[in-house]
Amino acid sequence: MITRIEIDGFKSFLDFTLDVPPFLALVGSNAGGKSNLFDALGCLADLQTVELDAVLAARRGRPRELFHWDSERRPVEEFTIKADVLVDSRVDGVWQRSPAFVQGIIGLNVTNQADSISLIGMEPESGWSPSSTWRWCTPEPMEMRKAAPAADRYALRENGSNLAAVLGRMRDSQAFKDLVVDLVALVPGVTGVEPVLDERDQEWSFDVVFSGQGAIPATLVSDGTLRIIALLAALYDPDHPGVLLIEEIENGLHPGRIAELLRRIARRVTDLSDPASAEEPLRQVVLTSHSPVVVGELVRERPGSVVFLDTVTRVQPGGPTSRITRARPVRDAGEPGTYVSPREVSRYLGTVRQDAQ
């Protein structure tokens, strides 16, 4: 679980800090920095399995473009990305020790000198991989419809290509029953999901059961229904808890289903104030959205989980200006520029709805 993010000099971030609760929605208009923040976390996650040069090359744009540039087109000398984490020591591949939850830091510092990029300090401790349980979820309709090898025991892949195998692995668990309950509540007419094992080819596929129609193969099910199944599978998977990162959660979903989906997702994350949480694996959801439906629902039901990201001009005395990303939680009062008031939320929602017309 990520508890705090600090970014300095990476893309649109300078001296950026953000405390991260178990359920966090990063909201705001496009180009506000939401994707850049996910890219920063992606750098940390990739460090566990990929060499530094490959980590930087995998990001959007050329490596030098990862550095923050001011208005005079000069890059900063270095960037730092750091995350404070709470690690479930009972998860495979993570440091084993007591107590069950261990605090730690994972980060990297990259310097830009003599036209070279290198890693300096702040590497994850040897043998310690807290970001191995961070999962990105951006399911693609064509991929979710594919059959998957029965031997696949992995978490849901980012594009959802092994969704059938995940459902097959989960089918006898209480988590699968809970998933079906939520799916039935979210998609009118659906009464169940049936994983199907091809014994000859040793591949999983799945059907979705509809009232009055029976079992319909995944190849014929709507994109929106498949996306809901994938999100629930990633969240409910009993073998792969951790951090679930969902970019633009509203994509491909009917607006009328988003509010209930958010409510059901929020119920599954870890409640750190509940002592019983110590007995369960850590689950966290970080999502992004610019949907007025998402913003309106969360501000009404869980205002503490909403953080607006936008860009502002930073002026340094005697120096060039910079466009930087700032994070502002929703509050009733505070120092100007550090929070979003309910009135500003209403203004934002009105503007977004007007632009969508």
From TrEMBL:
Residues 204-295 form the ATPase AAA-type core domain. The keyword DNA damage applies. Gene3D superfamilies: P-loop containing nucleotide triphosphate hydrolases (3.40.50.300). Keywords: DNA damage, SOS response. GO terms for molecular function: ATP binding; ATP hydrolysis activity. One of its GO terms (biological process) is double-strand break repair. The keyword DNA damage applies. InterPro entries: ATPase_AAA_core, P-loop_NTPase, RecF-like. This is Putative ATPase.
